[in-house]
Amino acid sequence: MKKENLRAISAQAIYQVLEQGQSLSSILPALQKNLDGKDSALVQEICFGIMRVLPQLEFFIRQLMDKVLTGKSRVLHYVIMVGLYQLLYTRIPAHAALSETVDAAMVLKKPQLKGLINGVLRQFQRQQPELMIQFEQTQEYYFHPSWLLKRLQSAYPEQWQDIINANNQRPPMWLRINQQYHSAEQYLTLLTEHGIEGKLHPELPEALQLVTPAAVSKLPGFDQGWATVQDLSAQYAARLLAPENSDHILDMCAAPGGKTTHILEVAPKAQILAVDVDSQRVKRITENLTRLKQQAEVKVGDGRYPEQWLDQHQQFDRILLDAPCSATGVIRRHPDIKWLRRDSDIAELVTLQAEILTNIWPYLKTGGILVYATCSVLPDENIRQIEQFLSVQKNAQLIGEPLQFLPALDSGDGFFYAKLTKNSA
User: Fold this and answer.
1) pLDDT tier at 27 (50, 70, 90 boundaries)?
2) 232-422 has CATH 3.40.50.150 classification
3) How high does pLDDT run on average in the chain?
4) Which residues bind S-adenosyl-L-methionine (predicted)?
5) Would you state the pLDDT for residue 199?
6) What is the three-class DSSP state of 170?
7) Which of 31, 78, 195, 247 would bridge 317 by S-S if both were Cys, CB 3.0 to 4.6 A apart?
């Protein structure tokens, strides 16, 4: 069987993200489907790693080449990037990284560019120390687009560097332990028996962090629903919603279903309607429910137009609105967000969030609870959105203080929560 050139696959993936605006999470599964576990993991490492440090690699290419590759040769620009990433950030021996990267030109039907790729990478090896010093003196050293850097500096004058530092790291792996089978302490013992090291969270009884991320196939009882991979900050959603078994609950923008299944772990007899606008992602909700042996009604629906998929008299005891957002709180998990988002997207997202929140609100019972959530760290989408809503909806009242989690090295992602109740008009 012919061995795939992993560098060519990685370069094609990066090309599709940066030239065609696709996300890594949507394109990688198809590119990885014929690869074994080790090769698949290397492609993942190269692609996600390049997205973390993209400005640095672009800077080096600008210094090393007089003319950028364009047109049909553009994908070779990303082959060079793949080569640079390996030399800088992996333990792959330099000679192997160079050889495989140069061979990618053959696979991509550009054999005439083999010499160019080889020359640029060897030149980098010679000039690496001085190039690193030059890069550290640039604004690009923060690995974030300038528009996002400005927004973070404005919103968090004391903390923006900590946020950026956290964004540039690999994410920690958090598990949510299904208390219907084991306590987190019991599951930690199981992990230890399997040679996996973990630690409990002092505040959330079902949260457990793996010291070193592991494949889900290695987690005891994963297929039986004993544990779910879910970031720490995302696990606060069900706790704030505080569902009860008698509740009728709407989980809006529910895909891929992590929060739906968590609600059902807390209140197994609650009636849940899980809705998302994306029909492909809705399938993931069903898959997660099946793995956890849970039941919920699942629908495709647009939160702006609930009258199209809800009876006008239907009302819910609790609504979780995990609103579409910039995802600026989960950059370390999805580093391509930095390069796919634009500054102009934020105003559009704020408008969309407001429409969904306003149009879903009538479906909450008087005395009911709505939890508004985003995986964003930008105030426009979070606290300002809620302040604007409260200024218009006179029967809406905030319960407690909103929570703004910021990404932290040994903690959760960036997340925002506001808990609202509906008073009688």
Assistant:
1) very high
2) yes
3) 95
4) 253-259, 276, 302, 322
5) 96
6) coil
7) 247
